[in-house]
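This section describes the prediction task in plain terms. A model, or a person checking by hand, is given the sequence of a single protein chain and must write out its three-dimensional structure as a string of tokens. No templates, partner chains or ligands are provided. The sample shown here is typical of the held-out split.
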Amino acid sequence: MAKAVDWEHEQLNTGVKTVDERHRFDEGALTRWMDANVEGFQGPIEVRQFKGGQSNPTYQVVTPNRSYVLRRKPPGKLLPSAHAMDREFKVISALYPTGFPVARPYALCTDDDVLGTMFYVMEMVEGRILWDQTLPEYTPQQRHDIYMAKLKTLADLHNTDYEAIGLGDFGRPGNYMARQVDRWTKQYRASQTEPMPQFDRLSEWLSASVPPQERTSIVHGDYRLDNMVLHPTESRVAAVLDWELATLGDPLADFTHLLMNWTNGGVATVKDLKAHGIPTTEEYATEYARLTGRTSMPDLDWYAAYSSFRLAAIMQGIVGRVRDGTANSPLAGAQGSRIGGLLASAETFARKSGAKF
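The expected answer:
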């Protein structure tokens, strides 16, 4: 079943299409704005919409000399604090000069009069976006190299001195996990479509059992293989995409979100990880600890429970956007079927971490 879902996601999310009627804008206005704000821009433009993305409409803007990517806040009724184009632009603008793999940012537009909603323009990074995380078309060694490159890039992000690159004000200091549990509880309830006692139990337990925060770093918020561009031929990350949820916080939240692929994603379908070339979660945790200079990885079951809880809240937000008519992806309506399984997974990890329900 997971393989069929991966294939469907790849078919529906790969490549570009004609711009959806709901997401059209004045291309002449964009041309004038880019001419005034984007270094080296020369029109005319041709605009296509990327198929991928549940949240923010994303466009390919093709000119005679180069291609750009435009990320835009969607029109219509939106959840509070969601679709933060200005925060995405701020973090990639800070990371780009360090050599961390992000697309070159060109310009941000906060004037809704130009296209109707806030947007920014960045370079189009060429390479591979891999949707099926079992990597069926690669050899075991290639799979191993890709997975380790993904982990090394995450460790590099968490090791970045955020204050030195001007991101000291990118999030509130401390108490990150408690604030995240509260945030996703509110987001879930703002888009709730039916009662979910499991969610309420988990929210209460997570709030009462938050582990102490040992470190603060830049966290991506949705770090996974299909949110990055791999180099066209090498096993290295060319660009990390989709920084909408980025902030300053507990890096273990990012790391355990990545591990969800082993319990709720495609890797869970692989029977022999060693033969397949994908590291185990234990091997991944050991290597992440080495790369980030940790002597231990405490409370991973708590963080895993939180990660499943959080993803359930995100899925509920997508279901809410379907209800409100603002969903971007044709797969959005199917996300509700995942929520029960995610909450069950969260409860399993919560019990491992000491919960009594």
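For orientation: Strands lie at 16-17, 46-50, 58-62, 67-72, 105-109, 119-123, 217-219, 228-230, 237-240, 247-249.
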